[in-house]
Specification:
This protein is mainly alpha-helical. The protein folds into three domains: 1-124, no CATH class; 128-354, Leucine-rich Repeat Variant; 387-494, Leucine-rich Repeat Variant. The protein is 52% helix and 2% strand. The strands form two sheets. The protein has a three-stranded antiparallel sheet with strand order 2-4-3, with no helix packed on it. Helix 8 (218-226) runs parallel beside helix 10 (244-252), helix 10 (244-252) packs parallel to helix 12 (270-277) and helix 30 packs parallel to helix 32 (536-543). It is flat. The two termini are 91 Å apart.
């Protein structure tokens, strides 16, 4: 529905006076002319544009027929006023609706008296409250001044905020710097929401909190009990509150003093005693007393407490409820004797929680390793406090997942890894090959494994490359492997010995030969052999290899393939003979790359400065200027 939000003209019709020019009263319908017939219909929609300029005057002599501007305030008999003001401004009074459009003749029978002066007074009151909030700077787009400011404007804003409406006072009560004077004033505010905001403010002084702690409203006392600035004396006072909600907040308060905790530990409400049982400041006497509580939820909370004493743990270990023992078995701070006693429990979940508990002793771990449950054995291997003895014991298990976990343990003994390397399951042997703690003898054995994944894992194991003896022993089997993936992975992870590279340079797979061709540790014999390879990719990698001999690079500088000669020209370790050859190459791009090479001789560089290609000349002159500048600095 559209509405009228403003009246641009206000005039007096007849002898009727209107309110002040600032008044904005919105009616539902325009004034009607005498020629218009009376119709029974639903109310027409409001309009948002100003009314027409030419409107007939309404001569309303009766007091109930007063007009405001070009609008009449009509209201049908027996209908209540429409009070949903969601679509109207805050300073607008909405009157209506109509089910019948009155005419001039029957207006005295169809409408009742409406006083525009009363409406104007209501509008003025709303405008005044909004103006105070804007002046105080507590609207949505402004922030209030702090109370500790010495500026007169800030102090004036706070005075206006405290004297303003409910929203401005509530915003002032929530501000992060609240002085004692303002807190004292706002804590006595008649509005409940304002006092509640003061009670929840962490910067509220103790004097105001003490006054609010005796407030008759429950939620205000509840906010005081949850405030971190509440003094211990007030918390002790609120621990005797008649409302359980307030006492529960005191029990949850992290700074509650011991007198308040002892008082609430004997409370009749089980939720309050549960909060005390979970409180980090609960002492030994409280936990021992609550361990025998009649409520199950209280005993469960005691079992989860990180400060659980030995006497309370012994009581809970003999509890009739299994859920209490389950929570107790997962508590890492429980004494060792109680945990070992729980290993004899018949409940499966108690033993599972114990297997995951990092506070178990070796005796308790050894006791649980004999359990028939598969998940308990898995959790024992993953337990950070387990010993290598547990791995040795479980490595012979019939479950392959348990044996895989044992093969992945880096603290497994050499005997266990040797035994697992002969396992019938491929994944078990694969994880033994990946284990960094696997000894050399076991790796040599796995290098002959029939599955390529196992041999590839051996070649990828960093333990193979730690010493020359290990490389020569293990890689002797891998260099002749029939799988190209095994032969390739060796070089991609770590440098190989020369004898291994010599064996691989004649490999039937081109990818293996490419790996050798780009290896700087390859021997001259291997690189010379690969420089004559029929594949261009091998010769390109030899040409870019910094370890290639000058003789090999000089020969590749005359290669018929353009890409090979480019790699030689870009090689900073290329000999001068090769660069002189490339400086006279027929292809201008090769001459350009050679001109950028820092090792090109001066005579070839001077010749390239006179090259017919402008890009070659530019690159050669840039290199020439660099050398001249460098030599001048040396001199």
């Amino acid at each position: 529905m559209k509405r009228v939000s403003d009246l641009e003209s206000k005039e007096t019709l007849g002898d009727t006076d209107i309110a002040s020019p600032e008044t904005k009263v919105v009616g539902l319908f325009k004034s009607r002319s005498t020629q218009e017939p009376t119709l029974e219909c639903s109310p027409p929609p409001l309009f948002s544009s100003p009314p027409p300029v030419r409107e007939p005057e309404v001569q309303s002599g009766s007091p109930h027929g007063k007009a405001v501007g070009n609008f009449l305030l009509w209201r049908a008999k027996g209908l209540p006023p429409l009070t949903t003001g969601d679509e109207l401004p805050d300073d607008t009074v909405y009157v209506g609706p109509l089910n019948r459009l009155p005419s001039r003749s029957d207006s005295s029978d169809s409408i009742r008296e409406i006083d525009p002066d009363f409406l104007a007074a209501e509008i003025k009151a709303k405008r005044k409250e909004k103006a105070k909030e804007r002046i105080a700077g507590l609207s949505s787009n402004l922030t209030p001044a702090t109370t500790d400011s010495d500026q007169p404007e800030d102090q004036k804003s706070w005075r206006q905020a405290l004297a303003g409406g409910v929203s401005s006072r509530r915003a002032a009560a929530r501000w992060w710097t609240l002085s004692e004077e303002n807190a004292r004033y706002l804590s006595s505010d008649p509005e409940v929401s304002v006092r509640e905001a003061v009670a929840g403010n962490p910067s509220c002084p103790a004097e105001a909190l003490g006054r609010l702690a005796q407030d008759r409203v429950v939620k205000i006392r509840k906010m005081v009990a949850s405030n971190l600035s509440t003094t211990p004396e007030l918390l002790v006072l609120l621990a005797y509150d008649v409302e359980s909600e307030v006492r529960l907040e005191v029990a949850k308060h992290p700074l509650s003093p011991p007198p308040a905790l002892h008082t609430l530990a004997a409370d009749s409400d089980a939720s309050i005693r549960e909060a005390i049982a979970m409180h980090p400041m609960a002492d030994v006497h409280l936990l021992n007393a609550l361990a025998s509580d009649e409520s199950l939820r209280v005993r469960r909370a005691v079992a989860m407490n990180a400060s659980l004493p030995k006497n309370a743990a012994e009581k809970l270990s003999q509890d009739t409820e299994v859920s209490v023992k389950q929570l107790l078995s997962s508590n890492a701070t429980v004494d060792q004797d109680t945990l070992y006693r729980l290993t004899f429990e018949k409940d499966l979940y108690v033993r599972r929680n114990l297997a995951d508990n990092p506070g178990l002793t070796p005796e308790a771990l050894n006791r649980l390793s004999d359990d028939a449950d598969r998940l308990i054995k898995i959790m024992l291997i993953l337990n950070p406090s387990r010993t290598p003895h547990i791995v040795d014991k479980l490595s012979n298990d019939s479950d392959q997942d348990i044996r895989i976990l044992c093969a992945r343990c880096e603290d497994a003994s050499a005997d266990v890894l040797e035994a697992l390397s002969s396992d019938t399951n491929v994944e078990v042997r694969l994880w033994v090959a990946r284990n960094f703690s696997t000894p050399l003898k076991t790796l040599e054995k796995l290098a002959k494994d029939p599955h390529v994944e196992v041999r590839q894992a051996v070649a990828d194991n960093r333990a193979v490359w730690e010493s020359a003896a290990t490389r020569s022993a293990v890689l002797g089997y891998l260099s002749g492997d029939k799988s190209v993936f095994v032969r390739r992975v060796k070089r991609s992870r770590s440098p190989l010995a020369e004898e291994m590279l010599n064996n691989l340079c004649d490999d039937s797979n081109k990818f293996v030969r490419m790996v050798v061709a780009q290896d700087t540790n390859a021997s001259d014999e291997a690189l010379t052999k690969l420089a004559s390879d029929e594949l261009v990719d091998e010769r390109m990698r030899v040409a870019a290899n910094h370890g290639a001999s000058p003789k090999t690079l000089a020969r590749l500088a005359q290669d018929k393939e353009f890409r090979v000669r480019v790699q030689v020209a870009a090689n900073n370790y290329a000999p001068m003979v090769a660069l002189r050859i490339l400086a006279k190459d027929a292809d201008p791009y090769i001459r350009l790359v050679a001109a950028d090479n820092r090792c090109i001789p001066d005579d070839s560089l001077e010749a390239l400065c006179l090259d017919y290609d402008r890009w070659v000349r530019k690159a050669a002159r840039a290199e020439f200027d660099r050398r001249v500048q460098l030599r001048s600095q040396i001199i």
